């Protein structure tokens, strides 16, 4: 519980709230239909991808820029942050997403709002298929985050922020046709609250959470195992150990890992 007495803790929680608000505002805003014709999938994918890349670059050193309850859950499963921090992060992300959707709703003409880019399942896709799609979309995204955030691989070339952004854009380029590409429960929850439409909403929580968990297990326990004992993992979950890696490596200079 000592974390709640730390200013850096509340700064990180606020960063998650603010980042998710910005992410939802710009992502949903770019997904609205301002004219006739089919949705520009490339525009939507780039908007979400560039939004998260910008936020990782700007706020990665403050909170890790999870901007996604599924990502936070993956870090929790991997014992890379405390349970208390994870709970506050998720609450901040959900509230931030609703705030971003509410602002977008308020500044958008009524004729353009529509369903506020609510995630919907394609009529030809079953619930089982939609959940599987969300699992795979989030799996590849979390794998990218874990690999690029991993402080054990300092010799990599390229931008962490752009890698994460491209991974998210990839998920949207494929997933929009199936499920609207949720990949983020806070992003899916926000327009559902504003429009009061929760049809099949559980898919956008269950799929990403399962995908994120599988991504964590695959990377942290199979592809690039972390040699931590049970006692060390429990200490981190309780908030008395060292939470790593919470933030991405710096570009181009490696940032010092935050001791929490």
Automatic annotation (TrEMBL):
The organism's superkingdom is given as Eukaryota
Main localization is other
Q: Keywords of this protein's UniProt record, alphabetized? A: Cell junction, Cell membrane, Eye lens protein, Membrane, Transmembrane, Transmembrane helix, Transport
Q: Where in the cell is it found?
A: Cell junction; Cell membrane
Q: Does the keyword Mitochondrion apply?
A: no
Report membrane topology: Multi-pass membrane protein
Q: Name one Pfam family in it.
A: MIP
- Kindly indicate whether the keyword Transport belongs to this entry: yes
One cellular component term from this protein's GO annotations in UniProt:
anchoring junction
**SUPFAM superfamilies reported for this sequence:** Aquaporin-like (SSF81338)
Annotated family: Belongs to the MIP/aquaporin (TC 1.A.8) family.
User: What is the protein's known function?
Assistant: Aquaporins form homotetrameric transmembrane channels, with each monomer independently mediating water transport across the plasma membrane along its osmotic gradient. Specifically expressed in lens fiber cells, this aquaporin is crucial for maintaining lens water homeostasis and transparency. Beyond water permeability, it also acts as a cell-to-cell adhesion molecule, forming thin junctions between lens fiber cells that are essential for maintaining the ordered structure and transparency of the lens.
Q: What is this protein called?
A: Lens fiber major intrinsic protein
